[in-house]
Structure formats: structure tokens, C-alpha cells
Amino acid sequence: MAPFKSGFISILGRPNAGKSTLFNRFLGDKVAIVAERPQTTRHRILGIKNIEGGQLIFLDTPGIHPGRSELNRRMVRAAIASARDADVLLFLIDATDPRPEKDGEVMESVKGCSGVPFLVISKIDLVKRKGLLPIMDEYQRLHPFKAILPVSAVTGEGADVLLDEILKVLPESPPYYPEDTVTDQTERFWVSEIIREKVIRECYQEIPFSTAVTIDGFEEHPEKSLVVIRGTIHVERDSQKKILIGRGGQRLKKIGEAARKEVEAFLRIRIFLALWVNVEKNWTQNPRALDRLGYPLTLDHSP
Ligand SMILES: Nc1nc2c(ncn2[C@@H]2O[C@H](COP(=O)(O)OP(=O)(O)OP(=O)(O)O)[C@@H](O)[C@H]2O)c(=O)[nH]1
Ligand SMILES: [Mg+2]
Questions:
Q1: Where are the alpha helices (DSSP H) in the chain?
Q2: 140's torsion region: left (phi>0), alpha (psi -120 to 50) or beta?
Q3: Is 54 exposed, middle or buried (0-12, 13-18, 19+ CB in 10 A)?
Q4: Is pLDDT above 70 for 302?
Q5: Residues 6+ positions from 113 with CB-CB distance below 8 Å
Q6: pTM of the entire predicted model
Q7: Could you give the CA distance from residue 215 to residue 57 in angstroms, rounded to a whole number?
Q8: What does the DSSP assignment read for 67-118?
Q9: Which atom of ligand 1 is nearest to the CA of 151?
Q10: Which has the closest alpha carbon to 18: 184, 195, 155?
Q11: What's the rounded Cα separation, in Å, for the pair 76 and 80?
Q12: Contact predicate 150/123, CB 8 Å
């Protein structure tokens, strides 16, 4: 029998490359939030896939980008930290938007990490097959990749081949986590992320990077098959609060309903979700506010 293999696989790349979508595809569940916008993921999120003969521990990470705010810097630091002890580094690039120079900076930022590097060309369902060859050619020169593999996280094309390639290079090791563990995120944190995802999807145009969500109450009432969740959406300015609430509270209601439905479907329990909006001036710049709102210096653990 082949020896058991287990190890950590860090998924790295620029914002919006498709990291979280691929991560979810591997795990077969929506563990990480996804949006059509850059800088959606802010923490390092761990997800575990058990297969015959191995345990693959994936790390979804924030996109690596030149950070302007303290929040940006903490996000990038978390991504880089996730690569430090990883056995495999998956560098994701977007087939619809190849930028060798910027992607090269991502690779440069984790130089010295010893994980086996793969180049993963994502979103191949959106491009013509023959368009991939010049991309492969160009990137080959950037870094000594073990292999270059095209995938679509949406259709699943290429995902199994990629898994096989990863398993081949993982070290022999007993599993790190019990077989029934899927993620290291708490339910509370996951719910806060789902709410944040709905805010991004609803208000990105007006409030691109300025919202945080905290969960202030999470009360389970098993006798009523009900969980009562109280959350606060934090924004940086009064004007953003107005936008988020919307005329007659319509927008906040829509966000709350979308989040509630998704959490109910996932946890298979009735949810009562109450949301408030709080103005926390310039929280993305302020280290103390960041600590308080769920973005401590080391975001390399999802809380
Ligand atoms: N068509 C298609 N769209 C994809 C694919 N992978 C991701 N997307 C879309 O690309 C957008 C960004 O996906 P994410 O998974 O959030 O990207 P990310 O790299 O995690 O982004 P950040 O967390 O912001 O760094 C979303 O709208 C996804 O639906 C794919 O394989 N095919
Ligand atoms: Mg992401």
C-alpha cells in the first residue's frame, strides 16, 4: 500500500485571481466567501480535504497587492506567512488577465519559501484554448515551476489533475487533523464573512474596501430550532452608513435577507439575524480598531 501523505498547500495570487473559488471547489463546500471584486478574502483560511491515501490542507489567502492601508499590509502579511511552512505553493493567475510583471511580484514576495511551486492558470472556461499557450510560455520564464496546470474552478476542468499533481509531491506524513474537520474557522467567523460578502456584492461600487463585520451575539435555542445572531457592519464614514442602510432601510434589509438565507441553508437551522451599522472612523488605518474588528496583526489564523 502507498504510504499516507499529508501537507499544507498555500493558494497564492493577486486579488480576484480565483483563489477562494478554487479552494471551495477542492473542499466541495462554500468555506470561503467569493465576490466579483478584488480584496475579498482578508484572512488566511484553512480547509481540509481527505482523500484516499492523503490529507490535503489548503490555505486560502488574501490577494497579494501593494498595500496602502494598515489593513492591506496585514492582509498581505498573512498571505506571505501562509507560504512560509507550506509544502506546496499554488500560484494562481487569471487566464483572462495575465500580468506577468505583477504576478512575478507575487512570486518574488515569497521567495525563500521551500514549498513546491506550481503555476495554476485559472478561469480557463472564459478563454480560448489556444490562448493558453503563449501564457504558459511567458510564465515559464518567471519561475522554476514544477508544472503549469490550467483549471476552471467553475466547471471543475483540470481540478482532478491538479489534485493528483499535488498529492505526488506531498510528504509522507500521518494526517494533521481528525477526519471530520473541514476548516479551522468558527461558525461565528463564517457567518460574519457571509454577511461581509453580501455587503461587498450589494455596495462595492460605493463602499469598496471599508466594511468590517463583527458578530455581537450568537445564541442557540435548540428547543425552538433557532439561532439568534446579532451582527454589526462597520464602515469608515457617516456617508457610507447612509448608503449601506439605503432609503427606508431597504438596502440593509436586502443584505440581511441574503445572508440569513445562505446561513440557514448551510447550517440547516432557522436563523434570526439582526444587523446594525456602526461608523468607526478610518478603522482600516488604525491598528487598535483593526485588532478590535477581527483583523489582528497576524491574520494567518482565521478566528
Ligand atoms: N468563469 C470563471 N469565473 C471564476 C473562476 N474562478 C473564479 N471566478 C470568478 O472570479 C471572481 C473572483 O473570485 P474569487 O475566488 O473571489 O477570487 P480571489 O482570488 O479569492 O479574490 P480575493 O479574495 O479578492 O483575492 C468571482 O466572481 C468568481 O466567481 C473560474 O474558474 N471561472
Ligand atoms: Mg478570496
A1: 19-27, 70-84, 100-109, 132-140, 159-169, 187-203, 238-245, 250-267, 287-292
A2: alpha
A3: buried
A4: no
A5: 83, 84, 86, 89
A6: 0.95
A7: 27
A8: --SHHHHHHHHHHHHHHHT-SEEEEEEETTS--HHHHHHHHHHTTT--SEEE
A9: 31
A10: 155
A11: 6
A12: no
Q: What cell was used for 280?
A: 468607526
- State the closest ligand 1 atom to the C-alpha of 24, by its place in the atom list counted from 1: 15
- Whose Cα sits closest to atom 10 in ligand 1? 18
Is 98 a pocket residue for ligand 1 (Cβ < 6 Å)? no
CB 60 within 8 A of CB 23: yes
Q: Read off the C-alpha cell for 181.
A: 474537520
pLDDT of 279 > 90? The answer is: yes
Report the distance separating Cα 92 and Cα 141, nearest Å.
16
Per-residue pLDDT, 179: 93
d(CA 179, CA 199) in angstroms, rounded, equals 34
Ligand 2 centroid–CA 225 distance in Å is 32
CA-based nearest residue to 235, from 259, 199, 273: 199
Q: Which atom of ligand 1 is nearest to the CA of 155?
A: 31
Closest CA to 62 of 16, 104, 107, 96: 16
Angle between helices 187-203 and 250-267 (to 10 degrees): 140
State the pLDDT confidence band at 2, using cuts at 50, 70 and 90: confident
